[in-house]
UniProtKB/TrEMBL annotation:
Superkingdom field: Eukaryota
InterPro entries attached to this UniProt entry: Cupin_2, RmlC-like_jellyroll, RmlC_Cupin_sf
Cupin type-2 domain segment(s): 169-237
SUPFAM superfamilies named among the record's database cross-references: RmlC-like cupins
Name of protein: Cupin domain protein
Amino acid sequence: CPLLAESSGSFASVVVACGDSFDERLAWLCSLQGVDGSPLLRVEEIGPADAPSYVRIAGAGTSMILTRDGPAAPLVLRLPSLVPHPDTAEMPIGCRAQPMALDPCDFVDRALPPPLAPLESLFDAAAPSEVIISRASGEGAQWGVGRAGMLYRDLVPSRAGGALIASHIRIPGGGPVPDYVHFHRVQFQLIVCLAGWVEVVYEGQGQPFVLRRGDFVTQPPMIRHRVLSSSEGLEVLEIGAPATHATLADHEHLLPITSLTAADDGATLADATANRLPNTTLFGGQRFVHSIYEEAMRAPAARVEDGIAWRESSVLAATEGLVHVAHGAALSMGEGAVLSNEGAAEGAQDGAVELEGFAPPPDGSLARGGTGLAHDAAHLTIAFVTRGSATLACIERDSNEMRLDHLERADCATLPAGRPARWLKPTADFEVITVAFLKSEAAREAAARAAALEEVMQMDLYEQQS
């Protein structure tokens, strides 16, 4: 390989074989100028003096060693956009300089939304028009091996034209995670723990905490965070928007890493909530959300549809109406059931849905989407079954006929806009999480409703405490 990592003294350098173009490349690199006209790169080491066979040059955060070894390797140098761009005609053969555009995100207050392309425009260009079903197992399952041996399943292969990426991730091994403090330039990111546990720490959220089955967090734009450890067999659902986004390290930002719960897999709900701080800080225009399954399941259902109790999350208000996240559970999983994030409610029974003899409702009867939202309020809705099974009924776009899809644990459905849907014959332990990306007008109205609801809830709480 012509490009090698070496160290010279205390410097790490990239080795570039130059062959017969050694002298020409050295002269060109040393001629590059910085913003103030001073040399961008300088010779730091050269040898032997009488007939140099290598030279180390450094500057602008770069260190490289040029050698006379051959054949000459291509050399691509990325330069800050403010640096004078060299004349292409003067570049030696095999050399190229690329300007690095200034990133507008670097010049925006971290509390404000990042200046990224509006998701609305991406959805308008290529939002899916048909229902997408992704199976976790069986003939239709598609898993790939990603970084560090993690298994990835792409839930929306089209990426909705670049608007989002949704992945089911399995991490077979457990123990400490070799992560570092980092952040993402995104507009939305959701992490749901599906199995096992993972210990994480987030900027402004106190000490590290553990996500267990059914817990989830939103990662607002630019929030610093780090993964510390995980159990064997960890599974997570990760949804991010846009699909392609930058992940940047922040080695200067220190986060608390003293583990309070990772060594104790039997930590209680009180342990999980003890470290949380008041959630008022804005990151990229959004608030951090940490939803704990057992805590959420004790809340009263916002509505009941087709034997499923729907509970709202605080994501709608926290994202200023960008995304709606809800949790649906069969009524047997509701208030009064014996709840645990390790197993189903006491008395729940597994079983496949029998479709024989099912009479579809008359046309027009599917008035609402499977999330409880009006079906045309979202660009698309992702419905991921976290436990049990049920049948999703929706209307085909062209034929206007009903289609039925039996979904089991870890199966996923992506519903496009204008596609009414409902759940039929859920098993007693059925649970589903839905993530709806709202249209802009619907987003504004939904945010206002969510804010009004939060105000009412705060008033009720105040009256109860008075």
